Amino acid sequence: MAAPATTDFRTRLQDWLPKLVLAPSFAVTLLFVYGFIAFTVVLSFTGSKMLPRYDFVGFENYAKLFALQHWHIALRNIAIFASLYIVICTLVGLLLAIFLDPKIRGEGMLRPIYLYPMALSFIVTGTAWKWFLDPGIGLQNVMQQWGWESFSFTWIKDSNMAIYTIVLAAVWQTSGFVMAMFLAGLRGIDNEILKAAQIDGASNWQLYRRIVIPLLRPAFLSAFVILSHLAIKSYDLVVALTGGGPGRATEMPATFMYSYTFTRNQMGIGASSAVIMLMTIAAIMVPYLYAELREKR
Amino acid sequence: MAAVTQDTAISTGRITRVFLYLVLLLFALFYLLPLYVMGVNSVKPLAEITGGNMMALPQVWTLDPWRSAWSTAQIGIEPTGLKPYFLNSILMVVPAVAISTIVGALNGYVLTKWRFRGDTWVFGLMLFSCFIPFQIVLIPMAVVLGKLGLAGSVPGLVLVHVVYGLGFTTLYFRNYYAAFPTELVRAAQIDGAGFFRIFWRILLPVSGPIAVVSVIWQFTNIWNDFLFGASFGGTSQPMTVALNNLVQSSTGVKEYNVHFAGAILAAIPTLFVYIVAGRYFVRGLMAGSVKG
Hints:
The structure holds 2 protein chains of 2 kinds. Chain A has helices spanning 3-43, 60-67, 69-100, 107-115, 122-132, 139-145, 162-187, 191-199, 204-215, 217-232, 235-241, 253-263, 267-295. Chain A is an all-alpha fold. In chain A, helix 3 packs antiparallel against helix 10. Chain A is flat and about 70 Å long. Chain B folds into 2 domains: 14-62, no CATH class; 83-288, MetI-like (MetI-like fold, Orthogonal Bundle). Chain B has helices at 14-41, 46-50, 64-72, 83-113, 119-128, 135-148, 154-178, 182-190, 195-203, 208-224, 227-232, 239-248, 256-288. In chain B, helix 1 (14-41) crosses helix 13, helix 4 (83-113) packs parallel to helix 7 and helix 7 (154-178) packs antiparallel against helix 10 (208-224). Chains A and B meet through helix 1, helix 3, helix 4, helix 5 and helix 6 of A and helix 1, helix 4, helix 5, helix 6 and helix 7 of B.
């Protein structure tokens, strides 16, 4: 009888099945993520222009990249944008969460209002804010029509200020989401701890500063990771809101990479800028992910 | 109902409470403002925007901007309106969300209930892929899609979104299934149930909440994507790219009212999903992934 052999095959199949199911996803990840990263890294060391070429030029692209005025503008902008965006989103999100926490009436109405911008595309957000901030038809015009003749708000047309309009729109879009994260954290705190501190005579301010905020550490960390991840990807919003302008005033690494690779046909330089972006993100994400995965062992 | 259900330990006086409401309402206005601006100005004739006040209600109500945005507005070089692009987005989103969610569920199941040596590494490598700046894969992806003959097609975009969505869906299902008692799986195994049977009969029936999270997340991300759509959309561009082309078009008069109507059209599907299922999303997300 062949029965033992078939059982054997079936049990062995059962042993292998889980790995077989996972294998396609893992293979796809290896190829489309890590293989592609390797490909881009290789390209960044070649003289590729419009199409990939394999003439190695060493670090020439990186040297050229860091000699470019545009790249320095992009780096300065991402530094301003990312730091303001992360800090303001965190503060607004924390403030709203703390204010909503005492189970006030109307929370059920307010929460979706705070959250809905997160559902929108950055292109939609950009379109709405682009015209609302436009001096000719938007806020400035509205204020002047309402009688405040000298009101002036031209940030979006001003090379020195345009970057802050991107911060404004980005904060509008994501601060509600940060609020939801902090609110979940606050609701998870054991009330007994707070009551005990109150009996010991702690004021509300002390409660928050000494107990609540330290207990929110995981929420702060998650918020930081998510926001920095969104900040460096800030491509869509810049395209929709300012198109990188006025001039090059709101150029970011993401827009720089795109224009050098696909419109200026400097693929080698575009690839090297993408590598710098990846390395920046990895410096933040790898330690975070490593700690997360170790903890859960 | 009492005005205040005071089950937190933080006590607030009357004045503090008024202050809280004031701040909360001001922020609510801030969040609603762009929605109001878009809505009101999408039902006005253009002259009322260029010659009037953006915050004012329309003097003449009109649905022409909506009609124009949907079916006649100039997108790129064709006067097609946003309709065909809306269709492209639907054709792209539905399969991409379905495939990435189903595969993510199976991955999560394997990674929690069929652990093997090195599984954390496999998961870690997949998880990191959620956080890469996509600029790093744009050039190779363009090359590969070209070689596969999928450049500029809806199936090409589906492939891209499935590939870069798998990390997230796997993460959600893995964290969710990790809390599910493994003993039940082992017991079913002893009773002779196989890999797929256990998944189908035991895990899947309890997966509702996390499936909602995964579907909402993927749906909003893919619908709202611009970078991949602009890079690989070709003649099958999604809604976001078309909207951007409409708004940035430099020829002719800027039809702000049409832009606003188009922006709302692009926002409707994701807003609808948030309104219907948003509450489950936040709840599920908090339970699944952002806990410390």
